[in-house]
């Protein structure tokens, strides 16, 4: 049978936070859907090009991506990266026209699996806090799906930061800032951890963005020097994969 779902991995999960991609595959295998991915043929969604002013190059990349995806005949694209999600779902249709498939973020996808009783979680006794990625929250309005997933795991207690949802501070990784001002990006990440994350006294910091995971890990290292006292920093899919068990 031909696959009906494409897992778009994204650059950060492909090259830096690989366990996020592995965890996502574990979740997708629970669904019964036949899925595929582009592997070495997957390029960038093009967001960094557009964010840094290379519009023509972005258009070329976007058209090339749609050509490769269309050849697969899939009906749905699932992505773990909020920037990829916004780019495929909103920016592509605005610039190159409507897409021949549905685009969904992994937090929405997992929420639909829970509602359809396609996945079941084991109990995890843990207190967590949640960081809202800028592209997922302020840009695309997805505040509830990640929280719904977290709250559906037995034993998990979610403690909100004072600055959350529309008031959440950036992790420092977005908008091309990492390319132009890498030191500033890391300073923003460290400030987010010190001012907002640590006061929750949670055991783990959860987010739903590979780039946020990457930078908040750095911020945690800078903010908390004793390794034993650092919070775990996990993507939502890593938490879900743990809750699914073996």
Describe the structure.
The protein has helices spanning 11-15, 18-28, 47-51, 55-70, 82-95, 106-115, 135-139, 144-151, 177-180, 182-197, 210-223, 236-244, and strands at residues 5-8, 35-36, 76-79, 102-105, 126-131, 156-158, 204-207, 232-235. The chain has 246 residues and is an alpha/beta fold. It folds into two domains: 5-112, Rossmann fold (3-Layer(aba) Sandwich); 120-244, Rossmann fold (3-Layer(aba) Sandwich), CATH 3.40.50. The strands form two sheets. Strands 2-1-3-4 form a four-stranded parallel sheet. Helix 11 (210-223) links the parallel strand 7 (204-207) and strand 8 (232-235). The longest helix is centred in the first third of the chain and has 16 residues, at 55-70. The chain is globular. The chain starts with a strand and ends with a helix.
Low-confidence stretches: none
The biggest sheet amounts to: 4 strands, parallel
Query: Widest sheet: strand order?
Result: 2-1-3-4
- By DSSP (H or I, 4+ residues per run), the number of helices equals 12
Backbone CA Rg: 18 Å
CATH class of the largest domain: Alpha Beta
| Mean pLDDT level | 95
Question: What series of H and E elements makes up the topology?
Answer: EHHEHHEHEHEHHEHHEHEH
Helix content: 40-55%
CATH architecture of the largest domain: 3-Layer(aba) Sandwich
Gap between N and C termini, in Å?
26 Å
Strand runs, count: 8
- Principal-axis shape equals globular
Q: Which structural class best describes the helix and strand composition?
A: alpha/beta
Looking at CATH, which topology of the largest domain would you report? Rossmann fold
Number of domains as seen in the coordinates: 2
Q: Determine the strand fraction and express it as a percent band.
A: 5-15%
